[in-house]
């Protein structure tokens, strides 16, 4: 989604297959937007509104006005999106009906919340909050902020201070850090 144009590209050569001009629906759209795609719909933030585009019809499926930002996340039939820096709003992905809110102080540098089968993960420079989806309650507060990423059951937190932390709820895992460049860090992780 770039400046009001939503398009699909051929994965073999990168050429546009089709383009939908959404600039009338989103007259203030500027710049580039990442989208989340699930079950035949693309979800994006445009002009601070959350929108769903039906990929079969290539038309706007629904739109929710609000002060939304970043890239939505989609899981289990719901869309999760940052709102106003103090909330993650949840919508039914098929209908656009708002179903829940997760109050949390968000950092502008953390673009997208993380969602698993039963957990929402989001945060700011000071802490990461882990919510239980079913009860909408805080499950854990990690006293380390940054950009979260999840891989193979390990939650990685890239801190704004240049530090990387790894958290897991399962057995301890040995994490090996290698580099082809100079050794960095204190203490050195290559030691």
What percentage of the residues does DSSP assign to strands (E)?
Answer: over 45%
**Rg, nearest Å:** 19 Å
User: What sort of overall outline do the alpha carbons produce when their principal axes are compared?
Assistant: globular
First and last CA, distance: 45 Å
pLDDT averaged over residues: 82
Order of helices and strands: EEEEEEEEEEEEEEEEE
Counting DSSP E segments of at least 2 residues, the number of strands comes to 17
Structural class: mainly beta
Description:
With 191 residues, this protein is mostly beta strands. It is 0% helix and 48% strand. The chain has no helices and 17 strands. The chain has strands spanning 5-9, 16-21, 36-38, 41-46, 49-54, 59-64, 68-75, 78-83, 87-92, 98-103, 114-115, 119-123, 128-132, 137-142, 147-151, 154-158, 164-168. The strands form five sheets. It has a four-stranded antiparallel sheet with strand order 3-4-5-6, with no helix packed on it. It has a four-stranded antiparallel sheet with strand order 7-8-9-10, with no helix packed on it.
